[in-house]
Design brief:
Elements lengths: L11 E3 L5 E3 L3 H22 L6 H19 L12 H15 L9 E2 L4 H24 L6 H24 L5 E2 L7 H4 L2
Antiparallel strand pairs: 1-2, 3-4
Helix pairs in contact: 1-2, 1-4, 3-5, 4-5
């Protein structure tokens, strides 16, 4: 099978079932952004294959393929893998497990610390963009409700995983330095 088909050379692509849409449609933007999030997770895994998070990240990458096929296919499409409530529950279990060992947050943190934590924060921001696209898509087309919940919960998990990556490396999260102006500063 050749990798190039030439069917998208004019700026459109095919969906499951044969329908063709513009490559800049909300559906394509949504699942394309999920693919981008998956690639960022691949970078995090490749750079840190010995990470205690690797097995969880591998499972996330596989689930993101399901999410991508779900979002790429209108709900009426048959025989398409779909995100289910059980995948959302799995994300919540992972969050709860990781948070058990983390100190409670007392302030905002910046994306950073270790390189893996920064990569996981990047994946989180890409996930949030996919979620925004999914909400936009939902305005005009049907979206599997658990898929939208999954994106919201995944960004939470990636935030907690970034903190866990820092903790595993014995590196502190990077606190945000608030630029609040005090009354004393205003008198200057």
């Amino acid at each position: 099978m050749k990798i190039y088909t030439k069917t998208g050379d004019k700026g459109d692509t095919g969906l499951w079932g044969g329908k063709r849409v513009s490559k800049d449609s909300a559906r394509i933007q949504t699942y394309g952004t999920v693919d981008e999030c998956n690639a960022v997770l691949g970078i995090a895994r490749a750079a840190w294959s010995d990470s205690p998070l690797d097995q969880m990240l591998a499972e996330l990458q596989n689930q993101l393929f399901v999410l991508g096929s779900d979002l790429a296919s209108p709900l009426e499409s048959q025989n398409v893998p779909r995100i289910q409530d059980q995948q959302v529950s799995w994300l919540e279990e992972q969050i709860d497990t990781l948070e058990q060992d983390l100190a409670p947050l007392t302030q905002f943190i910046l994306p950073g610390g270790t390189a893996q934590a920064a990569q996981l924060h990047l994946a989180r921001t890409v996930c949030r963009r996919a979620e925004r696209w999914a909400v936009s898509l939902r305005q005009t087309e049907s979206v599997n409700p658990p898929a939208l919940i999954y994106l919201n919960r995944l960004s939470d998990l990636l935030f907690v995983a970034a903190r866990a990556a820092n903790q595993a490396a014995k590196i502190s999260d990077v606190p945000w330095q608030s630029p609040r102006i005090t009354a004393k500063d205003q008198s200057l």
